[in-house]
Amino acid sequence: MKRSKRFAIVAAVAAVAAAVALTGCSSDDGSKDAPASDANATATLNSAADAAAALTGAKVVLDIQGSLQGVNASKVEADVATKPKVAAEGTATLKMGDKSSSAPFVYVDDHMYANIDDKGYIDYGDGRSIYDVSKILDAEKGVPFILRNITGAKEDGSETIDGVETTKITGTVAAKDLSGLTGASPEAKGLESDIPVTVWVTKDGKNNVARVLAEPAEGASMTINLSEWGKTVDAKKPADVKSPSAKPTTAPKSGEPTRQPVG
User: Where does the secretion signal sit in this chain (predicted)?
Assistant: First the structure.
């Protein structure tokens, strides 16, 4: 065999070996590296997460456009306290069939009491059937957690929100990490993707979160506006809480409640 031919074969073998070595160094599950985050954006998000986790109270306005499985409210506007226990008082706009209903609610002692269609306050347990307000500022599942898990974070200019100048930051977050706010089970199918998210952080040195915008599903968005950071909230259980009756023997018509309050 001629020397030039042997050299070509050796070179080819070396190239194959190098390719195998490179393949072995890559991820076995085929996952791609997460996009790099800007250092300044990451620092701002971490400071904002610390500020949100330390909040004792705030005004929260949650607005949902489109349909999210597991969320029956299209809007929640409430004063939310985090310490010594989570408490909230406000109004939820509920989707009931082809109509909407505005319901005042109070969340105290891990129970949500709501007055839907002026039928009287009923105990809705943990409130998940309406919206679990206890998760919004939760350090393990809510806004602080989301901020710490954003990848590919980039600063995208400044914006004024409700008269407050903010830094706008874009990035993505794993759908399963957003499940605490969307109400979806972290093990549900379809939560393997990354979700676009935008955060606005105040530029007053306090690094408070003014707004979080995510798009958890196609054609659906979730916006959380925070203001009055550190607000004192004094929510109390309604004086007259009615007990729900037994489930009806026949299926209710669209938009009708599944239970009627009784005295």
Answer: 1-23
